[in-house]
Specification:
13% strand, 252 residues, alpha/beta, Rossmann fold, binds NADP nicotinamide-adenine-dinucleotide phosphate
Length: 252
């Protein structure tokens, strides 16, 4: 539950990978602030369930965001069914844990496609709609891994998130002319299914906690609060940034 008071009524927000975890918390925060939320996930059942939990006017738009044609269809459907698109949150992501020498080419390509190329596809499709409507907000969920933070056996993930931070900055430069702000959010270790396996290892958790000044792992709502702020008018002079939300783990 977010404590930030933001009025997003009249705005349509699309959140990718919002069937669970961080994306679901972001969708909830935006809906609680008055936005009509389009809930995307590759898993139709979890997208539908999340949209039902949010209630009207939220709707599910299941699609694989790594498929450019599916993304075009999804964004057209959101605009047609919900009346516009003002906020885009690129949250869908996957992570494999494989050493480079053992990484199949398909695994590398899939990670880059979901974590990086999908943001290009959605921004390319949503950009003209936001431009023609007078502006908009895009938030890309990257990672502290996007800032050269070592993550053993996750080269494809680190490369995808560093790429997403770079894309965010170029997109912010180009889209500023259209009054579209583009920022990245870089979570540290957040308690979701993505980190469940690692969190089951007490030594791993102890190593993480030793590095986090605030002394705890993050919750999905910790990330959602920052995303909500970035979507608000309070962040109107903020674009092209990659902001860590990690309890102080990484200080740049
Ligand atoms: P999660 O619990 O695994 O949720 C990710 C969601 O994205 C799942 O619902 C997944 O669907 C969906 N998804 C995967 N591929 C997709 C695709 N091609 N098209 C549409 N949806 C797709 O992960 P999370 O922890 O909430 O992570 C959310 C974002 O935060 C990711 O970008 C992740 O890299 C980033 N992040 C997470 C952490 C962390 O510690 N958790 C830290 C830094 C950054 P399925 O249900 O089918 O798998």
């Amino acid at each position: 539950m977010s404590t930030l008071s933001v009025d997003l009524s009249g705005q349509v927000a699309l959140v990718t990978g919002a069937g669970r975890g961080i994306g679901k918390a972001i969708a909830r925060a935006l809906a609680q602030s008055g936005a009509a939320v389009a809930v995307n996930d590759i898993d139709a059942a979890s997208a539908g369930q999340a949209a039902r939990e949010l209630g009207d006017p939220a709707r599910a738009f299941p699609a694989d965001v790594s498929d450019p044609a599916a993304v075009e269809r999804m964004i057209a459907a959101v605009v047609h069914e919900m009346g516009g698109l003002h906020i885009l949150v690129n949250n869908a992501g996957i992570e494999y844990k494989t050493p480079i020498l053992e990484t199949p080419v398909e695994e590398w390509q899939e990670t880059l496609a979901v974590n990086l190329s999908a943001a290009f596809y959605t921004c390319k499709a949503a950009g003209p709609i936001m431009r023609d409507a007078g502006g908009g907000v895009i938030v890309n969920i990257a990672s502290i891994a996007g800032h050269n933070i070592p993550l053993p056996n996750r080269a494809s993930y680190v490369a995808s998130k560093a790429g997403l931070v770079g894309f965010t900055k170029e997109c912010a430069r180009e889209f500023a002319a259209y009054n579209i702000r583009v920022n990245a959010v870089c979570p540290g270790v957040i308690e979701t299914e993505m980190t469940a396996e690692s969190r089951s290892n007490p030594q791993q958790v102890a190593r993480w906690l030793a590095d986090i000044p605030q002394g705890r792992l993050g919750q999905p709502d910790d990330v959602a609060g920052l995303v909500l702020f970035l979507c608000s008018d309070g962040a109107r002079y903020l674009t092209g940034q990659a902001i860590n939300v990690d309890g102080g783990k990484v200080m740049l």
